[in-house]
Amino acid sequence: MATALLGYKIAVLVFLENEAGELLLMLRAKPPNLGVWSPIGGKLETEIGESPFECAVRETYEETGFQVAASDLHLFAMIAEKAYEGQTHWLMFLFHCRRPIAALPPEIAEGSFAFFSRAAIETLAIPETDKKALWPIFDQHKNRFVALKADCAPGRPIDVTIEEITPAQA
Prior knowledge:
There is one protein chain. By secondary structure, the chain is α+β, with helices and mostly antiparallel strands. 18% of the residues lie in helices and 36% in strands. It contains 3 helices and 9 strands. It has helices at residues 52-64, 118-121, 128-141; strands at 8-15, 23-28, 37-38, 40-43, 73-84, 88-97, 111-116, 146-151, 159-165. Strands 4-1-6-5-8-9 form a 6-stranded mixed beta sheet, with helices on both faces. Strands 3-2-7 form a 3-stranded antiparallel beta sheet. A hairpin with an 8-residue loop joins strand 2 (23-28) and strand 3. The N and C termini lie far apart (43 Å).
């Protein structure tokens, strides 16, 4: 099968909220996800051995100017997306920031920002994999840890499989 020949990209997504509990999303100005809303994040700098936590701290600061420590972050999911948009495989680490962000960040080259209630996110232009997997994972597992895989091969429905779930944190 052709998907076996695709390489992996490793990335993080960071879910930030303001004091009102609204989630910060970026309207992406570059591929992947050009023209759609998604949480902040980016690719690990694998050539320097960057860890997912280091990447999440770096990307949060680079994209929002909000300085967080690894201890402010809770890793709540790892998802392996097979054949995303038929282009590559993604290994993604999803973080929920325990500290609220105080203000809306200014626009950057990667996109512009807005805060949304969780209900409002359902009405936005978001990637199909986010609708099927990412937001349900956030809703159900943001206080625990879950490992999943998602087959995103073009031409068929996205198939999400849970591989492990840990109990919720206190």
